[in-house]
Structure of Putative quinone-oxidoreductase-like protein, chloroplastic:
Amino acid sequence: MSNSIPKTMTAWRQNAYGGPESLTRAEVPVPQPGEGEVLIKIGATSLNGADIRIMRGDPKLVRLGSGMRGPKEKIRGKDVAGTIVAVGPRVFGRSVGDRVVGELPGGGLAEFVVAYSSKLSTIPSGVDDKIAATLPLAGGTAWQALESVNTDRGASVLIIGAGGGVGTFTVNLATWAGAHVHALCSPRAIETVAALGAERVDDRTATSTESLASDDYDVIVDLGGVVPLRELRRLVRDGGDVVEVAMGGNSVVGPLGRAIGSQAMSTWSKKHLRPLLATKRPGLTKTLLDLVASGEITPHIDREVPLDSADQAIKALDDGEVVGKILVVPGS
């Protein structure tokens, strides 16, 4: 690696599952890029609900992939944007100085991170690292929730839990597509969600879905996972779709039972309940970057927190205090 790259860096590590208190600040070696990898100097890391689930190992089902006794990836932070400062062997089409963004297994709560070059998207000029970092997981999940259902101009869409990272992107993308959006969100998110284009915004703590008319929506995107499936099916029209994104569930298997229930209730029904398992798609991140660059969508950033206080950013997200996205940026 270049002499300008330090040998050690600040990172927030986690050795055992737990709450924000399980993260500790440490000085660790700067990783070296292997075959097909690049080393990124991080410009911004966007935190997501997935970081919280892995941090807590909850539901326990996630531990099959993340580690049974503790997280295999010790550093939280999946969505990272920054500048390539070194390249490993057999990296093609990437150079030192390129600005890139991607959804990684982790490693974002640090000054540097390694990533496979093929999993990254180039950040266009005019889009800064902070905006780019919001896109891969939250923006990508919102896109995948909407891409297989009818959000064409004039469609009626209900978004439940619209104030979080995925929720604000879902509002933004559905209104961009021309849908009429009714959003349910926390009181703190109402103003933001309305500004993103929702035509009707209600406080989900004061508005029961039981008060909503039957057969009134073409699409329902459920980001809360607490409204009974039969109630969601009542609200959607024949031929319509309910997309289950955050599907609740118990502390062991999480959303698995609800997903099975969704599939069962869709059998022989004119109303479709679709559990969503979003996947990493660098090509989709590029599409979202282009929409941001052209001004067609605008991610909402609640706040930026310096790396030295990254545990406070995780705590704010864990406590449900964030509207849209929260970023960790270099500095103290």
Residues 135-147 form the longest helix (13 residues).
